[in-house]
Structure formats: structure tokens, C-alpha cells
Design a protein that fits this description.
mainly beta, three-stranded antiparallel sheet, about 0% helix, globular, six-stranded antiparallel sheet
Length: about 90
């Protein structure tokens, strides 16, 4: 069993030229570019089991969240999407 949980990020619109996802899992370094697939964009990465991450998408240079995933406001007042990895099976 892998020591990390696989997560897939999806942007459900095909119109943008570029979609990047970044967050606490990569120290907000904009390290993951999503690949255009059909009607949207996707990318997969791994995060530690039970870890809660905050993240945002950068769509054609604009930082945004997706309404299809939960959000939280951080201590600086920024609204980010959030995800918590499950417990290791």
C-alpha cells in the first residue's frame, strides 16, 4: 500500500488555455499543470493520508476556486478549496 493518497483535480470547463492547481500540498508553487481531457482539465498528485490541503486553480492567469468542492476562508481572508485525504486503508 502506498504511503500517500492519490487525488485528482478537475476543472470542468474546456474553454481555458491553461489550468494550474496549487496549494498547501506544493507550498503554493504552481507546480501542477492540468491536462486538457474532453470537456475539461485533469491532473493527479499524491498527498499524505489524513492530510487536509487548501488549494486553488489558476485559470488563464486568474486565481479561482471551483464551486463543486468545499471552501474555507484562511487566516488572511482568502477563500480556498479544501480537501482532506481519508485514513490509510
Amino acid at each position: 500500500m502506498d504511503d500517500r493518497h492519490e487525488i485528482t483535480f478537475e476543472w470542468p470547463h474546456s474553454e481555458p488555455s491553461t489550468v494550474i492547481v496549487t496549494g498547501t500540498f506544493d507550498q503554493w508553487s504552481s507546480s501542477i499543470t492540468l491536462t486538457k481531457e474532453g470537456a475539461g482539465f485533469k491532473a493527479t498528485t499524491r498527498i499524505p493520508w489524513e492530510e487536509k490541503i487548501a488549494y486553488k486553480f489558476i485559470v488563464d492567469g486568474n486565481w479561482t476556486t471551483t464551486p463543486s468542492q468545499p471552501t474555507e476562508t484562511d487566516a488572511s481572508g482568502n477563500v480556498n478549496n479544501v480537501y482532506t485525504a481519508p485514513s490509510k486503508p
